[in-house]
Protein backbone atom coordinates (compact mmCIF):
# COMPACT_ATOMS: atom_id res chain seq x y z
CA UNK A 1 0.00 0.00 0.00
CA UNK A 2 1.54 3.35 -0.98
CA UNK A 3 2.68 5.90 1.56
CA UNK A 4 0.10 8.66 2.11
CA UNK A 5 1.92 10.77 4.69
CA UNK A 6 2.67 14.39 3.90
CA UNK A 7 6.05 14.67 2.16
CA UNK A 8 8.88 14.95 2.81
CA UNK A 9 9.41 11.79 4.79
CA UNK A 10 10.85 12.35 8.25
CA UNK A 11 14.35 10.88 8.35
CA UNK A 12 16.13 10.52 11.68
CA UNK A 13 18.60 8.57 13.74
CA UNK A 14 18.37 6.41 16.82
CA UNK A 15 20.24 7.92 19.74
CA UNK A 16 22.48 7.59 21.63
CA UNK A 17 24.79 6.93 18.72
CA UNK A 18 26.66 3.70 19.29
CA UNK A 19 30.23 4.07 20.52
CA UNK A 20 29.93 7.76 21.41
CA UNK A 21 29.53 8.96 25.02
CA UNK A 22 26.56 11.22 25.65
CA UNK A 23 28.96 14.02 26.57
CA UNK A 24 30.17 14.03 22.94
CA UNK A 25 26.75 14.07 21.27
CA UNK A 26 26.33 17.85 21.01
CA UNK A 27 28.29 18.29 17.77
CA UNK A 28 26.68 15.18 16.29
CA UNK A 29 23.17 16.48 16.99
CA UNK A 30 24.10 19.74 15.26
CA UNK A 31 25.55 17.80 12.32
CA UNK A 32 22.33 15.84 11.99
CA UNK A 33 20.31 19.03 11.67
CA UNK A 34 22.71 20.58 9.18
CA UNK A 35 22.62 17.47 6.97
CA UNK A 36 18.83 17.28 6.77
CA UNK A 37 18.00 14.73 9.44
CA UNK A 38 14.73 15.72 11.04
CA UNK A 39 14.40 13.48 14.10
CA UNK A 40 16.21 11.82 17.01
CA UNK A 41 14.54 8.78 18.60
CA UNK A 42 15.42 6.62 21.58
CA UNK A 43 14.42 3.14 22.65
CA UNK A 44 14.65 1.66 26.12
CA UNK A 45 15.83 -1.83 26.98
CA UNK A 46 18.87 -2.66 29.09
CA UNK A 47 21.16 0.25 28.19
CA UNK A 48 20.35 3.95 28.15
CA UNK A 49 17.04 5.24 29.43
CA UNK A 50 14.67 6.72 26.88
CA UNK A 51 14.58 10.31 28.15
CA UNK A 52 18.12 11.49 28.97
CA UNK A 53 19.52 11.46 25.39
CA UNK A 54 16.46 13.41 24.23
CA UNK A 55 16.83 15.97 27.00
CA UNK A 56 20.35 16.63 25.74
CA UNK A 57 19.10 16.90 22.16
CA UNK A 58 16.34 19.28 23.22
CA UNK A 59 18.96 21.74 24.39
CA UNK A 60 21.60 21.09 21.74
CA UNK A 61 19.53 20.64 18.56
CA UNK A 62 16.46 22.91 18.58
CA UNK A 63 15.44 21.88 15.05
CA UNK A 64 15.20 18.14 15.69
CA UNK A 65 11.92 16.47 16.56
CA UNK A 66 12.36 14.02 19.44
CA UNK A 67 10.62 10.74 20.14
CA UNK A 68 10.64 7.61 22.27
CA UNK A 69 10.12 4.31 20.51
CA UNK A 70 9.27 2.92 22.85
CA UNK A 71 9.05 3.26 26.65
CA UNK A 72 7.75 0.22 28.57
CA UNK A 73 4.52 0.96 30.42
CA UNK A 74 5.28 -1.35 33.35
CA UNK A 75 8.55 0.18 34.53
CA UNK A 76 7.28 3.67 35.41
CA UNK A 77 4.14 4.55 37.29
CA UNK A 78 1.53 6.32 35.16
CA UNK A 79 1.97 9.66 36.96
CA UNK A 80 5.78 9.54 36.74
CA UNK A 81 5.53 8.74 33.05
CA UNK A 82 3.19 11.71 32.52
CA UNK A 83 5.46 14.01 34.53
CA UNK A 84 8.56 13.02 32.60
CA UNK A 85 6.82 13.33 29.25
CA UNK A 86 5.47 16.75 30.21
CA UNK A 87 8.95 17.88 31.24
CA UNK A 88 10.46 16.87 27.92
CA UNK A 89 7.55 18.43 26.03
CA UNK A 90 8.27 21.68 27.87
CA UNK A 91 11.97 21.45 27.00
CA UNK A 92 11.15 20.80 23.32
CA UNK A 93 7.79 22.52 22.73
CA UNK A 94 5.88 21.12 19.79
CA UNK A 95 8.58 18.62 18.86
CA UNK A 96 8.18 15.64 21.17
CA UNK A 97 6.41 12.36 20.39
CA UNK A 98 5.75 9.90 23.20
CA UNK A 99 6.02 6.27 22.14
CA UNK A 100 4.77 3.65 24.59
CA UNK A 101 4.73 -0.13 24.46
CA UNK A 102 4.44 -3.34 26.40
CA UNK A 103 8.10 -4.43 26.19
CA UNK A 104 8.42 -7.97 27.57
CA UNK A 105 9.56 -10.16 30.47
CA UNK A 106 13.34 -9.84 29.81
CA UNK A 107 13.25 -6.10 30.56
CA UNK A 108 10.24 -5.80 32.83
CA UNK A 109 10.56 -8.86 35.05
CA UNK A 110 14.05 -10.30 34.77
CA UNK A 111 16.08 -7.13 35.28
CA UNK A 112 13.53 -4.86 36.97
CA UNK A 113 11.70 -7.36 39.16
CA UNK A 114 8.28 -6.09 38.05
CA UNK A 115 5.51 -8.57 37.15
CA UNK A 116 4.73 -8.55 33.44
CA UNK A 117 0.96 -8.83 33.69
CA UNK A 118 -1.86 -8.07 31.26
CA UNK A 119 0.32 -6.09 28.82
CA UNK A 120 -2.55 -5.12 26.51
CA UNK A 121 -4.61 -3.66 29.34
CA UNK A 122 -1.61 -1.92 30.86
CA UNK A 123 -0.74 -0.27 27.55
CA UNK A 124 -4.34 0.77 26.92
CA UNK A 125 -4.83 2.14 30.45
CA UNK A 126 -1.51 3.98 30.43
CA UNK A 127 -2.34 5.64 27.11
CA UNK A 128 -5.69 6.80 28.47
CA UNK A 129 -4.19 8.09 31.70
CA UNK A 130 -1.23 9.87 30.12
CA UNK A 131 -3.29 11.44 27.35
CA UNK A 132 -5.73 12.87 29.90
CA UNK A 133 -2.95 14.07 32.21
CA UNK A 134 -1.00 15.74 29.38
CA UNK A 135 -4.20 17.51 28.35
CA UNK A 136 -4.38 19.07 31.82
CA UNK A 137 -7.20 16.92 33.19
CA UNK A 138 -7.53 15.74 36.78
CA UNK A 139 -7.39 11.95 36.60
CA UNK A 140 -8.68 9.59 39.26
CA UNK A 141 -10.47 6.29 39.51
CA UNK A 142 -10.20 2.65 38.58
CA UNK A 143 -8.43 1.41 35.47
CA UNK A 144 -8.34 -2.30 34.71
CA UNK A 145 -4.59 -2.51 35.44
CA UNK A 146 -4.17 0.15 38.16
CA UNK A 147 -6.05 2.57 40.42
CA UNK A 148 -5.34 6.30 40.67
CA UNK A 149 -6.47 8.23 43.73
CA UNK A 150 -6.06 11.56 41.96
CA UNK A 151 -3.45 13.27 39.80
CA UNK A 152 -3.09 16.45 37.76
CA UNK A 153 -0.04 18.04 36.19
CA UNK A 154 0.56 21.53 37.59
CA UNK A 155 2.00 22.68 34.24
CA UNK A 156 0.61 20.56 31.41
CA UNK A 157 2.14 21.08 27.96
CA UNK A 158 0.90 24.07 25.99
CA UNK A 159 0.68 21.94 22.83
CA UNK A 160 -0.72 18.43 22.38
CA UNK A 161 1.85 15.65 22.72
CA UNK A 162 1.35 12.93 20.09
CA UNK A 163 1.28 9.40 21.49
CA UNK A 164 2.17 6.33 19.43
CA UNK A 165 2.33 2.65 20.33
CA UNK A 166 4.87 -0.03 19.73
CA UNK A 167 2.60 -2.36 17.78
CA UNK A 168 3.43 -5.52 15.86
CA UNK A 169 0.39 -7.78 15.88
CA UNK A 170 -3.28 -7.08 15.13
CA UNK A 171 -4.52 -6.45 18.67
CA UNK A 172 -1.98 -3.74 19.47
CA UNK A 173 -2.10 -2.32 15.95
CA UNK A 174 -5.86 -1.87 16.27
CA UNK A 175 -5.42 -0.30 19.70
CA UNK A 176 -2.95 2.16 18.19
CA UNK A 177 -5.46 3.03 15.47
CA UNK A 178 -8.34 3.52 17.89
CA UNK A 179 -6.67 5.38 20.74
CA UNK A 180 -3.37 6.93 19.64
CA UNK A 181 -1.71 8.93 16.92
CA UNK A 182 0.14 6.06 15.27
CA UNK A 183 2.54 3.19 15.79
CA UNK A 184 6.19 2.25 15.97
CA UNK A 185 7.68 -0.94 14.57
CA UNK A 186 11.06 -2.53 13.94
CA UNK A 187 12.72 -5.80 12.94
CA UNK A 188 10.37 -6.28 10.00
CA UNK A 189 10.66 -6.36 6.22
CA UNK A 190 9.03 -3.84 3.87
CA UNK A 191 6.36 -6.38 3.02
CA UNK A 192 5.70 -6.99 6.70
CA UNK A 193 5.26 -3.26 7.20
CA UNK A 194 2.70 -3.17 4.41
CA UNK A 195 0.56 -5.70 6.31
CA UNK A 196 0.92 -3.77 9.58
CA UNK A 197 -0.04 -0.51 7.88
CA UNK A 198 -3.04 -2.08 6.17
CA UNK A 199 -4.48 -3.13 9.53
CA UNK A 200 -3.71 0.29 11.03
CA UNK A 201 -5.45 2.22 8.26
CA UNK A 202 -8.45 -0.12 8.09
CA UNK A 203 -9.03 0.17 11.83
CA UNK A 204 -8.41 3.92 11.91
CA UNK A 205 -10.96 4.54 9.20
CA UNK A 206 -13.65 2.86 11.31
CA UNK A 207 -12.51 4.07 14.73
CA UNK A 208 -12.95 7.11 16.96
CA UNK A 209 -9.63 8.74 15.93
CA UNK A 210 -9.75 8.60 12.13
CA UNK A 211 -7.14 11.29 11.41
CA UNK A 212 -3.62 10.81 10.01
CA UNK A 213 -1.48 8.25 11.79
CA UNK A 214 2.25 8.35 12.32
CA UNK A 215 4.00 5.23 11.04
CA UNK A 216 7.44 5.13 12.61
CA UNK A 217 9.98 2.44 11.68
CA UNK A 218 13.40 1.88 13.20
CA UNK A 219 15.79 0.40 10.66
CA UNK A 220 19.11 -1.18 11.55
CA UNK A 221 21.74 -0.09 9.05
CA UNK A 222 25.32 -1.20 8.50
CA UNK A 223 26.78 0.87 5.62
CA UNK A 224 29.39 -1.62 4.46
CA UNK A 225 30.13 -3.35 1.18
CA UNK A 226 31.38 -6.35 3.15
CA UNK A 227 28.22 -8.45 3.08
CA UNK A 228 29.69 -11.30 5.14
CA UNK A 229 30.71 -8.89 7.90
CA UNK A 230 27.22 -7.39 7.93
CA UNK A 231 25.58 -10.81 8.03
CA UNK A 232 27.73 -11.94 10.95
CA UNK A 233 26.82 -8.77 12.80
CA UNK A 234 23.18 -9.21 11.88
CA UNK A 235 22.99 -12.83 12.98
CA UNK A 236 24.48 -11.99 16.36
CA UNK A 237 21.93 -9.23 16.88
CA UNK A 238 18.92 -11.08 15.49
CA UNK A 239 19.37 -14.36 17.36
CA UNK A 240 18.26 -12.87 20.66
CA UNK A 241 15.60 -10.66 19.10
CA UNK A 242 13.88 -13.35 17.07
CA UNK A 243 13.76 -15.63 20.12
CA UNK A 244 12.27 -13.01 22.41
CA UNK A 245 8.61 -13.72 23.06
CA UNK A 246 7.28 -10.57 21.42
CA UNK A 247 9.24 -10.88 18.19
CA UNK A 248 8.95 -14.65 18.00
CA UNK A 249 5.17 -14.32 18.11
CA UNK A 250 5.29 -11.49 15.57
CA UNK A 251 7.26 -13.52 13.04
CA UNK A 252 5.09 -16.57 13.66
CA UNK A 253 2.09 -14.39 12.80
CA UNK A 254 3.88 -13.30 9.64
CA UNK A 255 4.23 -16.97 8.64
CA UNK A 256 7.89 -17.58 9.51
CA UNK A 257 7.39 -20.24 12.14
CA UNK A 258 8.83 -23.05 10.02
CA UNK A 259 11.59 -20.84 8.62
CA UNK A 260 12.77 -20.03 12.16
CA UNK A 261 12.06 -23.40 13.80
CA UNK A 262 15.72 -24.49 13.86
CA UNK A 263 16.78 -21.13 15.29
CA UNK A 264 14.21 -21.49 18.06
CA UNK A 265 15.29 -25.07 18.85
CA UNK A 266 18.94 -24.13 19.22
CA UNK A 267 18.09 -21.11 21.35
CA UNK A 268 15.90 -23.18 23.66
CA UNK A 269 18.78 -25.64 24.04
CA UNK A 270 21.10 -22.82 25.12
CA UNK A 271 23.20 -22.74 21.93
CA UNK A 272 23.15 -19.08 20.87
CA UNK A 273 25.80 -19.55 18.18
CA UNK A 274 23.85 -22.33 16.49
CA UNK A 275 20.66 -20.28 16.76
CA UNK A 276 22.35 -17.37 15.00
CA UNK A 277 23.74 -19.64 12.28
CA UNK A 278 20.26 -21.09 11.67
CA UNK A 279 18.71 -17.76 10.70
CA UNK A 280 18.25 -17.91 6.91
CA UNK A 281 20.58 -15.60 5.03
CA UNK A 282 17.70 -14.10 3.07
CA UNK A 283 15.98 -13.11 6.31
CA UNK A 284 19.15 -11.53 7.69
CA UNK A 285 19.44 -9.48 4.49
CA UNK A 286 15.77 -8.50 4.74
CA UNK A 287 15.96 -7.33 8.37
CA UNK A 288 19.38 -5.65 8.32
CA UNK A 289 20.04 -2.98 5.73
CA UNK A 290 23.61 -3.13 4.46
CA UNK A 291 25.63 -2.13 1.41
CA UNK A 292 27.06 1.17 0.24
CA UNK A 293 25.20 4.31 1.41
CA UNK A 294 23.25 4.75 -1.83
CA UNK A 295 22.06 1.16 -1.65
CA UNK A 296 21.11 1.65 2.00
CA UNK A 297 19.00 4.70 1.12
CA UNK A 298 17.26 2.76 -1.61
CA UNK A 299 16.44 0.01 0.88
CA UNK A 300 15.02 2.61 3.25
CA UNK A 301 12.85 3.85 0.37
CA UNK A 302 11.19 0.44 0.21
CA UNK A 303 9.79 0.99 3.71
CA UNK A 304 8.58 4.45 2.75
CA UNK A 305 6.80 2.93 -0.23
CA UNK A 306 4.97 0.58 2.17
CA UNK A 307 3.70 3.39 4.39
CA UNK A 308 6.52 4.56 6.67
CA UNK A 309 6.23 8.29 7.29
CA UNK A 310 9.13 8.45 9.75
CA UNK A 311 12.26 6.32 9.62
CA UNK A 312 15.04 6.32 12.22
CA UNK A 313 18.29 4.61 11.32
CA UNK A 314 20.03 2.64 14.06
CA UNK A 315 23.66 2.79 12.93
CA UNK A 316 25.81 -0.30 13.33
CA UNK A 317 29.63 -0.20 13.06
CA UNK A 318 31.05 -0.72 9.60
CA UNK A 319 34.69 -1.46 8.74
CA UNK A 320 34.85 1.40 6.24
CA UNK A 321 34.48 3.94 9.06
CA UNK A 322 36.71 4.52 12.03
CA UNK A 323 35.77 4.13 15.69
CA UNK A 324 34.36 6.70 18.06
CA UNK A 325 32.75 10.04 17.32
CA UNK A 326 34.76 10.59 14.12
CA UNK A 327 33.62 7.30 12.62
CA UNK A 328 29.99 7.87 13.60
CA UNK A 329 30.16 11.40 12.18
CA UNK A 330 31.41 9.98 8.88
CA UNK A 331 28.51 7.49 8.78
CA UNK A 332 25.99 10.24 9.54
CA UNK A 333 27.35 12.23 6.61
CA UNK A 334 27.45 9.23 4.27
CA UNK A 335 23.83 8.28 5.02
CA UNK A 336 22.38 11.80 4.99
CA UNK A 337 18.95 11.85 3.36
CA UNK A 338 19.78 14.09 0.41
CA UNK A 339 17.27 14.55 -2.39
CA UNK A 340 15.97 10.97 -2.06
CA UNK A 341 13.78 12.02 0.86
CA UNK A 342 13.10 15.59 -0.13
CA UNK A 343 15.59 17.12 2.29
Please describe the topology of this protein.
Blueprint (H helix, E strand, L loop, with lengths): L9 E5 L10 H10 L4 E4 L9 H9 L4 E4 L2 E2 L5 H14 L4 E6 L3 H6 L8 H16 L4 E4 L4 E5 L11 E4 L3 H10 L2 E5 L3 H17 L7 E9 L4 H17 L1 H9 L7 H8 L3 H6 L3 H7 L1 E2 L2 H13 L4 E6 L8 H11 L9
Parallel strand pairs: 1-2, 1-12, 2-3, 3-5, 4-5, 5-8, 8-9, 9-10, 10-11, 10-12
Antiparallel strand pairs: 6-7
Helix pairs in contact: 1-14, 3-5, 5-6, 6-7, 7-13, 8-12
Give your account of this protein's structure.
The structure is a single chain. This protein is of the alpha/beta class. It has a domain at 10-217 and 336-341: TIM Barrel, CATH 3.20.20. Helices cover 45% and strands 16% of the residues. It is built from 14 helices and twelve strands. It has helices at 25-34, 52-60, 78-91, 105-110, 119-134, 170-179, 190-206, 227-243, 245-253, 261-268, 272-277, 281-287, 293-305, 324-334; strands at 10-14, 39-42, 65-68, 71-72, 96-101, 139-142, 147-151, 163-166, 182-186, 214-222, 289-290, 310-315. Strands 1-2-3-5-8-9-10-12 form an eight-stranded parallel barrel, surrounded by seven helices. Strands 6-7 form a two-stranded antiparallel sheet. α2 (52-60) links the parallel β2 and β3 (65-68). α6 (170-179) crosses α7, α7 (190-206) runs parallel beside α13 (293-305) and α8 (227-243) packs across α12 (281-287). The two termini are 23 Å apart.
Amino acid sequence: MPNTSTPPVRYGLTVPLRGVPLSQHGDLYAQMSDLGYTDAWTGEAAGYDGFTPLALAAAQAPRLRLGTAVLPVHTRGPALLAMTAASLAEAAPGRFVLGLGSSGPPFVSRINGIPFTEPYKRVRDTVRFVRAALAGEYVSGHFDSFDIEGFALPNPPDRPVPIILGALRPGMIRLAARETDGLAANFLTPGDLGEVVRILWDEAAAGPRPGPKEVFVRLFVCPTRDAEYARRLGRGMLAGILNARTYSAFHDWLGRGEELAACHRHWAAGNAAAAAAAIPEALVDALLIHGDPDHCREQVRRYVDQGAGTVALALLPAPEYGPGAAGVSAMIKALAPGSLFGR
